[in-house]
Design goal:
Helix content of chain A: 25-40%
CATH class of the largest domain in chain B: Mainly Beta
Order of helices and strands of chain B: HEEEEHEEEE
CATH topology of the largest domain in chain B: OB fold (Dihydrolipoamide Acetyltransferase, E2P)
Number of domains of chain B: 2
Order of helices and strands of chain A: EHEHHEHEHHHHHEEEEHEHHHHEE
Number of strands of chain B: 8
Structural class of chain A: alpha/beta
Oligomer: heterodimer
Distance between the termini of chain A: 29 Å
Number of strands of chain A: 11
Structural class of chain B: mainly beta
Shape of chain B: globular
Largest sheet of chain B: 5 strands, mixed, barrel
Radius of gyration of chain B: 16 Å
Strand content of chain B: 35-45%
Chain lengths: ~425, ~140
């Protein structure tokens, strides 16, 4: 497959996100207004939203979660941007990463000069059992779901194959959760902006207050092995291996490269994009890798003219802890089977040589399914511009990457970013 | 048998007859389980039904403690988890199925590579009744 060129350059000149969490009484449109307003404050120079020419909104299933279809024009309406064209993009958990790609294509091709891309999801309207059923529709309902698979179940099966092949253990996975909570504790937009130690302290305080037996965990690993505090969901994945159920919205402002400096002296350029599709999990050649993500990253690197070694910071799709480990291999940071060792050695902490998910990842920040892809871009924007506060990676971040997966890898989309 | 459309409806009908069926490309000989109407390699619709031996081995699995409503209705819960897995069939393709004959409450005892044979679970009643594909661990003599 030949590597495509990006056409004219595309730059990010603003990003925004709502807080991620559970917000009774707020609908996707309300969260999107919050993301939009946050984006407006992020644009360094003067910016008239009326210059936006089109909207590309990722959303997995407002039908199932809110009973609301046809959501893109509602978002356009609520942020005052009708009658501009607005479209919803759906590729499960990759919806807004793919929306970003559609926006890139619109600008790179010359069709539009400025577009708004973003994502929305409102998951907390439904009880958890119904959320689980809604998420299952991202799998193959004819041939995977009747087997009893849930989404944690799919990734747990991937973990069983990975552990069997490479000798990883559930403890390797737990380290990813610890790292992402350590990062998320420093992200005030994160749903669980607390470290595991913070979680433990709260549970101890709550037990004291209620006169219950005080838990005695020696450390975080002991906590993560506690069947009551960290129950098994789908072996080997426990509660803290799974990203939460989240409401949230995110937004990114794209302009053509030649317009970028009108809005900021410090734009983030998108220099590579890759996307791939794949079959249901049982039809994959390898169960220990998400081949669509590997392919998407190769395309993105080829378009960008960089390699995995050039990437200084990345946000990858940690819907489950095992997904992060495999992601770091699929995008070429580590060799197949070495991702878990890299996690064990701390190579992917914000102090390590390959910082991954400094935002807290989906695990700690939250996973509002359709909004997560462009949510990753918000972190990359902040990190590259030195605006990530206490979780700032202290290094020159010239090249960055986002990796966003739909389902178990039926869709994967990867972007590469450059700061000049 | 050869004239049935290569759809999930047909696959289900065969399951209710106790048969695991796939479609085979007449041009390439490749077998697809579940059945496909079109060969993805040649784009040809020249397919035929083939019955599988039902033998396979466990390629990946999980023990599910928090299942969907259909499995809760079937009697599974946190104290009675079930095993779902991916089975590599002897003929080559792999498929998702519930795995029986293993101890889902002791998942560390379940081994990838376990030899399996096909079986069928009927759930639901009257109009809702349908058969589910499952594989059971071979009992060693």
């Amino acid at each position: 497959m030949s590597s495509k060129k990006i056409g004219r350059g595309v730059a990010i000149v603003g990003t925004g996100m709502s807080k991620f969490g559970a917000f009774p009484g707020k609908a996707t449109r309300d969260l999107f207004v919050e993301a939009f307003q946050d984006l407006r404050t992020s644009v360094d120079k003067e910016f008239d939203p009326r210059d936006i020419e089109a909207l590309f909104i990722g959303n997995y299933s407002s039908e199932l979660f809110e009973g609301q279809g046809h959501t893109a024009p509602i978002m356009a309406d609520w942020v005052g941007l009708t009658p501009r064209p607005a479209v919803r993009i759906e590729d499960a958990c990759a919806s807004s990463g793919v929306a970003l790609r559609q926006g890139i294509m619109a600008v790179a091709s010359g069709f539009h000069d400025m577009v708004l891309v973003g994502g929305i999801e409102k998951m907390n309207n439904l009880p958890i059992a119904e959320v689980t059923e809604a998420l299952a529709t991202a799998g193959d309902v004819l041939y995977e779901i009747p087997a009893g698979f849930t989404f944690p179940g799919f990734y747990a099966a991937i973990a069983s194959a990975y552990m069997h092949q490479y000798g990883a253990t559930p403890e390797s996975l737990m380290l990813v959760a610890k790292k992402n909570h350590d990062n998320g504790a420093l992200n005030d937009k994160a749903q669980f902006n607390m470290s595991l130690a913070d979680v433990m302290a709260r549970k101890i305080a709550s037990a004291e207050k209620k006169g219950r037996p005080i838990p005695e965990w020696a450390d975080e690993m002991a906590f993560l092995h506690d069947d009551r505090a960290n129950p098994m969901i789908a072996w080997p994945l426990r509660l803290f291996d799974c990203s939460p159920v989240t409401d949230g919205a995110t937004a990114v402002l794209l302009v053509s490269e030649e317009l970028a400096k009108r809005f900021t002296d410090d734009p983030v350029y998108i220099i590579g994009s890759g996307q791939a599709s794949d079959s249901a999990l049982h039809d994959r050649k390898k169960l220990t890798s998400i081949s669509a993500a590997n392919l998407a990253s190769q395309q993105a690197y080829a378009m960008a003219g960089v390699t995995a070694d050039d990437v200084k910071v990345a946000e990858v799709h940690d819907c489950f802890t095992i997904a992060e480990i495999i992601a770091t291999e699929d995008v070429g940071f580590f060799k197949p089977g070495e991702g878990f060792e890299a996690a064990e050695e701390g190579l992917t902490t914000r102090y390590g040589p390959k910082p991954v998910n400094t935002s807290g990842g989906l695990k700690s920040k939250g996973h509002p399914v359709g909004a997560s892809g462009t949510g990753q871009v918000v972190e990359i924007w902040k990190q590259m511009r030195g605006e990530a506060g206490e979780r700032q990676v202290d290094r020159d971040l010239d090249i960055a990457l986002t990796h966003n997966v739909g389902g178990t890898g039926q869709t994967a989309v990867v972007h590469v970013y450059e700061r000049r | 048998m050869s004239e049935r459309a290569f759809t999930e409806e047909s696959f289900q009908q065969f399951l209710s007859d106790g048969k695991l069926m796939g479609s085979r490309s007449k041009e390439t000989g490749e077998i697809f389980v579940p059945p496909r109407p079109m060969c993805p390699s040649t784009f040809s619709m020249d397919m035929e039904w083939v019955e599988l031996s039902g033998k396979g081995e466990l390629a990946a699995f999980t023990a599910v403690y928090v299942g969907p409503m259909a499995m809760v209705d079937a009697g599974y819960d946190r104290t009675n988890p079930y095993c779902s897995g991916i089975v590599r069939l002897a003929e080559g393709p792999s498929i998702s199925a519930q795995i029986l004959g293993v101890d889902a409450s002791q998942p560390q005892t379940i081994a990838i590579g376990t030899p399996l044979h096909v079986t069928y679970i009927e759930r639901g009643s009257d109009d809702d009744a349908r058969f589910y594909l499952a594989f059971a661990a071979d009992i060693s003599d």
